[in-house]
């Protein structure tokens, strides 16, 4: 293995930071409220609230840049938000106010009369070309209770109005981490996933596997009889003659069978785990790791038991991933009020040889 | 450890040879790394094992001792290495490691900065994530631990992917040669906020930072410090000043067989009695877009 100078390594860094026409991106709408995929072409659009906006303005922009929905003469459009240096002075003010907060809500009555602007007024403002931010300021100015609220409460109010009247879109690179959030939100938990999301999942997995490895994706065939070995779809990067998403040629299948796979991931929540496992684990090289995801515990317990009695694997463990997100704000840090109660279960293990006779010494 | 050399790649055709590193598996909670040598001998409670019996067998083989006891010989992976490495410091385990690597958005070719190296548990997994053409630059302020880490990376065949430096990142920041070149940065420091200005300079556009700390106090200070400093630096915060913090927990379950005397036999599974309740808080942030 030749050693590269650190100069060579650093300058070869290839991750693109600017979008281009036709690239896949992840759109983060209103700070994580909604995350979805998109392909940036001149004609593609995104629907935010009840407004349809073209994604063209996003082409050629850096990942991490923000946009806001504005309404112009020709309808709603996405406008780039230029980062301002006064961005978080709010934070500094907050710190001071923390010490002196003496407001509370003892006199606030929630009877829907605080806001004097009507929706017609707001539409009128829009027609006259007001930006989303200006509308938010107007709402604040016309709220009889705003000044009486605590600083935290005012911040919460402002953010809520911004999400409605000036929704923001954050342009993100499509990494597997984010794809999981997006696809879970968009798909039914059935095995017939839409082709677009499979492509994008493969894109992400391709990114995360090295150029010298093959990622083989097995699609479920329409008949439940698992002749899946003959239905392998290949997504390798080195072999130029095989395109991602195509059915694998016989030589490739033969080579995979001869060498064995170096790892196995099974995530077929609606199918019987053991019937897949007993077909696929034998395709794994010895000492190769595997992981099986299932939404239910029992099928995995059965798999684990069977793998144990058939002496097919060791180091087996069923784990339950559990992620707790926190809201982190000064003096307001706590776990999110709502959280996912279950992420399904994972059975992991290492394949071993079945040979069991003691060797003569 | 990583299949950089195609002849060493794990496959049905790969055989254990002299000089290979194997992970000897006795039980799920008893494993150790062993360098195979022609005259080597392993002795444990299951008996005496001659390395020469192992040569020519595939990884994943079950091998027997003179008195009939057995062990398995496994190919080393970062996961197994994390379980067998010698602890010079408290380490990160696979539950945290997998979240960190995923959320740091590390792919092959990335440049990752890490401080501190500790015992090299996370570093080993980072190396795999960036292979074959990326690199991990890791720093520890303890000279001896840095040297031990370097030795470990030699043993596991990762020295072409990992460079260990001795440096006090909290006090001095990362070296200038990395300015604007890091895709991701990982911090496991007692006072990570002191390193933040340096991290902001090191990260590429849209780069990701992760800071690990067992203490909630640490990430509250991390956040507060940003808000005070933000006016001066103008370049470092998440998109609206909030850092999402994740606490992860993996509960292990081991299958227990059902009552053997009654029929039909049922498989029962339940959680282990004693579970790891807390390792630390992970704080992630992205470099704010300022172009």
Major sheet summary line of chain B: 8 strands, mixed
CATH names the topology of the largest domain in chain A as Rossmann fold
Helix and strand sequence of chain A: HEEEEEEHHHHEHHEEEHEHEHEEE
- Give Rg of chain A in angstroms: 27 Å
Largest interface: A-B, 83 and 97 residues
* CATH H-level homologous superfamily name of the largest domain in chain A: Vaccinia Virus protein VP39
Give the uncertain stretches of chain B in residue-range form.
Answer: 226-251, 255-263
| Through-space gap between termini of chain B | 41 Å
- The total of beta strands of chain A comes to 15
Low-confidence stretches of chain A: 86-94, 181-212, 219-243
Number of individual domains of chain A? 3
Which term fits the overall shape of chain A? elongated
How would you sum up the global shape of chain B?
Answer: globular
Biggest sheet character of chain A: 5 strands, antiparallel
Keywords (chain A): Nucleus, tRNA processing
Family (chain A): Belongs to the TRM6/GCD10 family.
Subcellular location (chain A): Nucleus
Region (Disordered) (chain A): 188-213
General description of the model:
Chain A: Residues 189-199 have a biased composition (Polar residues). Chain A: This is tRNA (adenine(58)-N(1))-methyltransferase non-catalytic subunit TRM6. Chain A: Belongs to the TRM6/GCD10 family. In chain A, helix 4 packs across helix 5 and helix 9 (273-280) packs parallel to helix 10. Helices cover 30% and strands 24% of the residues of chain A. Chain A has 361 residues and is an alpha+beta fold. The two termini of chain A are 38 Å apart. In chain A, the strands form four sheets. Chain A has a five-stranded antiparallel sheet with strand order 2-1-7-5-6. Chain A has a five-stranded mixed sheet with strand order 11-12-15-13-14, covered by helices on one side. In chain A, strand 3 (45-48) and strand 4 (51-54) form a beta hairpin. Chain A folds into three domains: 3-82, Roll (Vcp-like ATPase, Chain A, domain 2); 89-166, no CATH class; 176-351, 3-Layer(aba) Sandwich (Rossmann fold), CATH 3.40.50.150. Chain A is built from ten helices and 15 strands. Chain A is elongated and about 80 Å long. Chain B contains seven helices and 14 strands. In chain B, helix 1 (78-84) runs antiparallel to helix 3 (121-130). The longest helix of chain B is centred in the last third of the chain and has 18 residues, at 216-233. Chain B has an eight-stranded mixed sheet. A four-stranded antiparallel sheet of chain B has the order 2-1-6-5, with helices on one face. In chain B, strands 3-4 form a two-stranded antiparallel ribbon. Helix content of chain B is 24%, strand content 30%. Chain B is α/β, with parallel strands linked by helices. Chains A and B meet through helix 1, helix 2, helix 10, strand 13 and strand 15 of A and strand 5, strand 6, helix 2, strand 11 and helix 7 of B.
């Amino acid at each position: 293995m030749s050693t590269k100078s650190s100069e060579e390594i650093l300058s070869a860094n290839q991750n693109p930071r600017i979008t281009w026409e036709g690239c896949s991106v992840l759109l983060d709408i209103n700070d994580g409220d909604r995350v979805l995929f998109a392909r940036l072409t001149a004609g593609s659009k995104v629907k935010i609230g009840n407004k349809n906006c073209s994604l063209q303005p996003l082409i050629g922009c850096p990942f991490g840049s923000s946009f806001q929905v504005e309404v112009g003469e020709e309808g709603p459009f996405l406008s780039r938000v230029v980062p301002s240096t006064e961005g978080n002075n709010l934070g500094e003010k907050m710190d001071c106010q923390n010490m002196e907060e003496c407001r509370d809500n003892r006199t606030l009555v929630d009877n829907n009369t605080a806001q004097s602007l009507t929706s017609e007024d707001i539409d009128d403002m829009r027609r006259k070309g007001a930006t989303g931010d200006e509308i938010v300021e107007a709402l604040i100015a016309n709220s009889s209770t705003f000044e009486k609220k605590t600083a935290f409460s005012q911040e919460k109010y402002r953010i809520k109005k911004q999400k409605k009247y000036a929704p923001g879109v954050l342009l993100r690179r499509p990494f597997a981490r984010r794809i999981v959030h997006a696809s879970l939100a968009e798909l039914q938990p059935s095995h017939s996933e839409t082709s677009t999301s499979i492509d994008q999942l493969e894109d992400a997995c391709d990114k995360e596997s090295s150029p010298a490895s093959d990622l083989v994706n097995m699609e479920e065939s329409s008949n439940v009889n698992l002749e899946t070995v003959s239905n392998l779809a290949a997504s390798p990067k080195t072999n130029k003659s095989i395109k991602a998403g195509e059915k694998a040629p016989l030589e490739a299948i033969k080579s995979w069978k001869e060498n064995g796979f170096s790892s196995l991931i099974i995530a077929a929540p609606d199918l019987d785990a053991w019937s897949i496992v007993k077909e696929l684990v034998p395709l794994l090289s010895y000492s190769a790791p595997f992981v099986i995801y299932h939404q239910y515990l029992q099928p995995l317990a059965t798999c684990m038991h069977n793998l144990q009695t058939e002496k097919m694997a060791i180091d087996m463990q069923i784990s339950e991933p559990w992620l707790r997100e926190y809201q982190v704000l000064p003096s307001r840090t706590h776990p999110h009020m709502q959280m996912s109660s279950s992420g399904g279960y994972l059975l992991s293990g290492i394949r071993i040889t079945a040979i069991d006779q003691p060797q003569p010494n | 450890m990583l299949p950089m050399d195609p002849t060493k790649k794990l496959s049905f055709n790969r055989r254990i040879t002299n000089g290979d590193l194997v992970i000897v598996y006795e039980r799920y909670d008893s494993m150790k790394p062993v360098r195979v040598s022609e005259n080597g001998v392993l002795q444990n409670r299951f008996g005496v094992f001659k390395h020469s019996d192992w040569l020519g067998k595939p990884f994943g083989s079950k091998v027997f001792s003179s008195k009939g006891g057995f062990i398995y010989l496994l190919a080393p992976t970062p996961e197994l290495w994390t379980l067998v490495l010698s602890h010079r410091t408290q380490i990160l385990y696979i539950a945290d490691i997998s979240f960190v690597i995923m959320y740091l958005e590390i792919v092959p070719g990335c440049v990752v900065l890490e401080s501190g190296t500790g015992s090299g548990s996370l570093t080993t997994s980072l190396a795999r994530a960036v292979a074959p053409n990326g690199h991990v630059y890791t720093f520890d302020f303890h000279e001896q631990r840095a040297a031990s880490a370097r030795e470990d990376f030699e043993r596991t065949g990762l020295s072409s992917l990992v460079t260990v430096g001795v440096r006090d990142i909290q006090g001095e920041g990362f070296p200038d040669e990395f300015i604007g070149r890091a895709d991701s940065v990982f911090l496991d420091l007692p006072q990570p906020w002191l390193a933040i200005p340096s991290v902001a300079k090191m990260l590429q556009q849209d780069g990701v930072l992760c800071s690990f700390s067992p203490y909630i106090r640490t990430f509250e200070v991390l956040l507060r410090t940003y808000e005070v400093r933000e006016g001066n630096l103008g370049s470092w915060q998440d998109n609206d000043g909030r850092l999402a913090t994740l606490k992860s927990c993996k509960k292990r379950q081991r299958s227990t067989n059902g009552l053997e005397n009654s029929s039909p036999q049922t498989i029962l599974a339940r959680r282990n009695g004693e579970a790891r309740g807390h390792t630390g808080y992970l704080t992630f942030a992205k470099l704010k877009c300022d172009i």
